[in-house]
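Can you please make up a whole protein chain along with its backbone structure tokens because I've never seen that pairing?
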Amino acid sequence: MGEAVNQQGMLKLNYRRTLQIGFAFFGILLLWQVYDSWCPTFLTDIIARRMYGMSSAQLKYSGAHQILNVQWMVGVIMACDNLAALILLPIFGNLSDRTHTPIGKRMPFILAGTIGSAIAFPFIPLFFHLNNVSGMVIMMACVLVFMMMYRNPAVSLMPDVTPKPLRAKANGLINIMGYMGGAFATVMGIFLKLTDYINVHDEDRKLWIIETPFMAASVLIVISTIVLYRNIKENQLAEELKDEMDLGEQLAAVESPVEDNAPMSEANRNMLVAILAAEFLWFMADNAIGTYIGNYIIYYMNSRSSATMMLTIVGGAASIVGFASGGSLADRIGRKWTISLGLALTTAAIAIACFVSPTGVVMGANGEFTFPPILFMIFVIKGFGMALVHSCSFPMVVELSPASQIGRFTGFYYTASMSAQTITPVAVGFVFRATLLWRALPVYAALLYFASLSVFTLRVKNIRVQKIRNLHGPEAPDEN
């Protein structure tokens, strides 16, 4: 077998196979990083033209508050995408649980979602360039539907083939692969500056500046899916890993045993609800920053869009460190305290961001300001802290799942996260409209991170796995 249980009853993580599954996450985060970095600014610019007859750059330099006034509409459109995801993710999770094909139960959805999203994605910047808001929003919706078809089954692959006690380490590895995809998108944003497109007259706007990252994301998500398809044979692995998965069930960090055909125990249900409630709150905070950080940098800090990309890079580098260490830390102190530590660090970092203001020091011909260096340190701490959170949170949810319902429980996880991401762009948009303060963004996020930390620490129990220790170092795989 590819991942044998040795004579001492130990389980050993197959690093090679886990990294191959990570190619799914590479494609997901690559596409979403491009989507989240460019689309809110596209929407801000195109809505400003409809409402005020001026581009967002013209409004910014006029010193008016109209840019803040349109953010609620940006939030509504971004939230509609998330609302569709809230509905579709559980559907595709349940469908993939019940699907049986010669290539597995997850792979048909992954392949169909990849093809659809890769075709639709480059049309988003094209319609923006043509000043066609309806066409752009329709293409955003199409990409979202296809990515939801892809995302839940792709995420479910890891717990399908990884015993429960090893999932925190495995989740850290596949998230590192995902952040590599996000980093690639971010590097493109440094060289293809969105401000070089936005802050010029219409006749000087070059389509290739905004089209290139979308085309590159489409090509790379196809390549990453081909790698995944060629290396992960679902049906074969299900047979090979049956004994290891059964042992993982016995060693699971749950209060009551999880059985396929039995109702969920009250203790396990309470644990699940508490985890999902805390997750909802931290995604409310995280998505607020993710949605509006580009506009925050361009229109409040009055800095270049490449500064946003640099923030993403330093935060992503810190996240990789967090994902690499999160599983081992959880082995020592438990998943609960690993997540609590991550939330505490993140709360402290974003609280400091509430006091950061534009420098007022002009650095370029366009009147842009120098970038406050402290924001880099804030995003390093936040990136590390949230990596600790994400490395353990999804494994805690699917720990409570029977083997036949992993897609369904993955749907629970995404229901919490996507409902938060549906609400928070609109909520922050209205907060901006009410306060006319960009500083409201870090205040809003810090309060929600603190609420999440409080709920998680007070309501989630720390269940340590005493019967197993994870072996370290790459396994010498014997798979074909």
